[in-house]
Specification:
By secondary structure, the protein is of the alpha+beta class. Helices cover 36% and strands 24% of the residues. The longest helix has 25 residues.
Length: 224
């Protein structure tokens, strides 16, 4: 399946912009940063002044409720950007970003990014696409919370995951680096027990197979 990361869809070399040292150039102070699994890239209330680009690994974006419960907003992988709200007036981070495994990122300061909009054709559209698509995704999640039951939300998440991150293998869809049941629960506003029940039911029907490392959907049409 074609890579669904936004940078792939646009005719712009985002890797060269965020990681010039990888392209034989050099930008002082912008060497790639590596984060260990479980290490935070940033936390709520920290100063918001950089936009990050993932070259390796995965990052979870989330926030905490008043009661301290973790709310997962997105899980991002190589070729994706986060921290973009720094461009539209966010002074302090509202979310946290944490590495889910060893992760390498490049970053650009927000004031530099604004200058780059003039130097790189398509960069403004690229960032508008990121912000716009994430707003639409959050609106879709809100509608699901209001109008759909837990099972439907979990199944729709699996379909979306396969569409965005999956690889077609014959008639089947393979998703590598499958996330935990708790992470699915956080993304779908359900419980870990409910996620486990739904996944086991789908596995018993031979619609999916899964383990800690991958998800295989045998038939997307039967995933209902």
């Amino acid at each position: 399946m074609k890579d669904q990361s936004l940078w792939y869809l646009e005719n712009i070399d985002v890797t060269g912009i965020f990681c010039p040292n990888k392209m034989g150039e050099f930008r002082k102070g912008h060497d790639p940063k590596t984060f260990k699994s479980g290490e935070y890239v940033y936390l709520p209330e920290e100063y918001s002044d950089s936009i990050f680009f993932i070259t390796k690994g995965r990052v979870k974006i989330g926030t905490y409720s008043d009661s301290g419960k973790e709310i997962t907003k997105a899980i991002l992988g190589p070729g994706e950007v986060f921290g973009e709200l720094a461009l539209i007036g966010e002074e302090k981070r509202r979310d946290f970003a944490v590495a889910m495994e060893e992760t390498e990122t490049c970053y650009v300061k927000s004031n530099q990014m604004k200058t780059m909009f003039r130097d790189y054709n398509g960069l403004t559209l690229f960032m508008m696409n990121i912000i716009g698509k994430r707003v639409l995704k959050m609106e879709k999640r809100l509608e699901s919370l209001v109008f759909k039951d837990s099972r439907t939300r979990i199944i729709e998440f699996l379909k979306e995951l396969a569409t965005e991150k999956g690889q077609r293998v014959g008639y089947e869809m393979l998703v590598r680096n499958f996330i935990t049941h708790q992470e699915i629960a956080n993304l779908t506003a359900t419980s870990r027990q409910t996620v486990t029940t739904v996944l086991n039911d789908l596995r018993n029907q031979n619609i999916i197979t899964f383990n800690r490392k991958r998800l295989l959907i045998r038939d997307m049409e039967k995933l209902v």
